[in-house]
Amino acid sequence: MKLTKQEKSWVFQDWGNSVYSIMITTAILPIYFKGVASNAGIADHVSTAYWGYANSLGTLFISLLAPILGTIADYQFFKKRFFSLFTWLGIAFTVAFVFVPSDQWILLLIFYMLSLIGFSGANIFYDSFLVDVTTNDRMDKISSYGYAFGYLGSCIPFVAFIFFQATGILPISQTMLLNGAFLLTAVWWAVFTIPLWRNVHQVYFIPHDKKPVRSSFIRLGKTLKNIKQYRNIVLFLVAYFFYIDGVDTIFRMASSYGIDLGISDTTLIIVLLVTQIVAFPFTIIYGQLAKRFGGKALILTAISIYIIICIYAIFMKTATDFWILAMLVGTSQGGIQALSRSYFGKIIPKERSNEFYGFYNIFGKFSAIMGPALMGVIAQITGHTQYGVASLVVLFIIGGVLLLFVKPEKLNQPV
Question: Given 129, 273, 352, 379, which is the most exposed site by the fewest CB atoms within 10 A?
Fold first, then answer.
């Protein structure tokens, strides 16, 4: 399928910002944090819990603001401005990791939370740009392309880091190598956002208002007051709240979980890299199959695979077990995220896409508060991280059952 310039530019943003997910959220920074916390005398399962709490707190601020910001951004010219603001916030605090002393683990967590606010906030408006760059019949494929090429693009800086880490070819210290990884992440993110800044524009919008903030609050209030007419959208959001919670938690806590199992840093990094590579073709496959079987059926398929992952986690003891779990995640992580994004884009009013994607993101972000906290608490109570992972099965079951009651796609219509 040939992509338009706008579609390509939108996909390139995923290629660019996904490096943050693998380098900062999943691989490099979590491992670095675990080492700093260990040097401070903090037990592995406790530092895992702290990392979970940091992820939860880091999303709280943007979760509370998401519907408000989204409603304001529906006015002409506001969407790209908000996107740029949060993008630069995330990039700036990714660079700021370089200036954190190696013994200041609390400051490191604070900077991580601020960078996460930037990354998560930018994605609210990036997701809503999907309705501006493509049509309903191409939406599943374009959304899947975004996630797929995001996985592929993020591998390039990751492979570069692994190469220099493994070979020691550069005459620099480990700290300098890590700082280089943080800087590379920020530069990569910024450079590949340029096409979106240049070529993607807000097509669907509400005409400019002299008092956009005040009017946005009024519109948001009306939406909440008349929420019953959007019951199909609400039901989807509640289902999404639960199942994406489990997806995000497994993704964000993977490195900490692997370390708790005794897996070496090198092995863990290689596993995460292979997972990204596996995710590339499978995400595209999900997009292709959605055209034949429908987005809802493919989302339910991915939920079923995640239920298997959670159950399997109870019995994990070796690196081989971790490899199996990681490959299962790679087959479905991108698919469930991409099709959830495009499925939602089809059932909302396009001219109010930011407002509704604000709700979409607040449900996703609030779930990101609950999931890591749940896993952290269970890990602390039991003293076993695998039981924390297993507890997430409840979230997938609830989300899957609720999704069954979402009616077939009714494009851009209140139901």
Answer: 273
Query: Any residues with CB less than 8 A from the CB of 410 and at least 6 apart, and which?
Result: 232, 347
Q: What residues contact 332, with CB distance under 8 A and at least 6 apart?
A: 282, 286, 301, 302, 305, 306
> Which stretch of DSSP H or E encloses residue 257?
helix 231-260
- In 80-158, DSSP assigns E strands to none
Q: Among 115-129, 220-234, 331-345, which stretch is predicted with the lowest mean pLDDT?
A: 220-234
pTM: 0.76
Q: Name residues whose C-beta falls within 8 Å of residue 19's C-beta, 6 or more positions apart in sequence.
A: 153, 154, 157, 158, 184, 185, 188, 189
CA-based nearest residue to 304, from 221, 167, 396: 396
Tokens of 407: 């009616």
- For residue 360, what are the CA distances in angstroms to 11, 207, 354, 365? 20, 23, 9, 9
Neighbouring residues of 168: CB distance < 8 A, sequence distance ≥ 6: none
Kindly report the CA angle at 236 between 49 and 252, in degrees rounded to 5?
20
Residue 192 CA: distances (Å) to CA of 13, 87, 398: 6, 12, 37
> What would the two tokens of residue 87 be?
């993008």
Mean pLDDT, to the nearest integer, of 389-415? 75
Q: What are the φ and ψ backbone dihedral angles of 138, each rounded to 5 degrees?
A: -105, 0
Instruction: Count CB neighbours of 288 within 10 A.
Output: 15
pLDDT score of 256: 65
Q: What confidence tens digit (pLDDT) does each residue in 111-153 have?
A: 998 999 899 889 888 988 988 998 888 888 899 999 899 888 8
Nearest to 179, CA basis, from 161, 156, 191? 161
Contacts of 92 by beta carbon, 8 Å cutoff, 6+ apart: 118, 186
Grouping H, G, I as helix, E, B as strand and the rest as coil, residue 103 is: coil
Residue 276 near residue 159 (C-beta atoms within 8 A): no
The two three-digit tokens of residue 55, written as one number: 């992820």
